[in-house]
Design a protein that fits this description.
7 strands; Ubiquitin-like (UB roll); iron-sulfur; 2 domains; 3Fe-4S; SDH/FRD_Iron-Sulfur; Helical_ferredxn; Fumarate Reductase Iron-sulfur Protein, Chain B, domain 2; 4Fe-4S; two-stranded antiparallel sheet; alpha+beta
Length: 249
Amino acid sequence: MNITVEAWRQDRPDAPGRFESYVVAGVTPQMSLLDVLDLLNSQLVAAGDEPVAFDSDCREGICGACGITVNGRPHGPVPNTPSCLQHLGQFPETTHFRVEPFRANAFPVVRDLAVDRSALDRVIQVGGHVDVLTGQAADADAELIGHDTAERALDFAGCIGCGACVAACPNGSAHLFAGAKLLHLSQLSYGKQERGRRARAVTGSLDHDFGPCSSFGECAQVCPADIDLSAVAAVNREAVRAAFRRRPD
């Protein structure tokens, strides 16, 4: 079957962008949104035209690199699913796709659908890590962690850093992303020793690169890792805890 793809084209970061419309032939319901872009690019290259630039890597919903905005929704029509795992058979009534990059001030366009998400990396650089003693590895059961605590920490560690939460938020907030990192590390024993410093560093990075939380919850509706809104609440809670600690950690 044939579908229409209206793709955002932007030659370089400082160039004006525009939408260009293409008819993509030979599409099947089994194809993902990225497969459609691959097919479109094959047609463009065969015709001697420039392919549409977009990011992708694992195509298994793990790496978070594939984010695009489809018909106004980050990642695509299917909630909580990355672009690479959204297949046309899941929305057979849609035959026109308007694809554009993630729209957020923190994500400047590099080219076409590819954006620079270094602002998320800066959050990780200032607080998404722990200090540990080097030397011989400790036994696996040296520090016991309860099952419920471990499972909840792993749930928040599942964030793939795709940036869809930022693109979905009217204010361009990264609270869901940052809160997932804070909750993941604050619940585990090896992350508690620098909990306050981490909270102050992460919230400072958020203030510098991202907007304030809108409190509408659009972020949770597009998150491929199903991070819930308790992560958003954790950002202010961890910041307040760090501010009122007599002995900063």
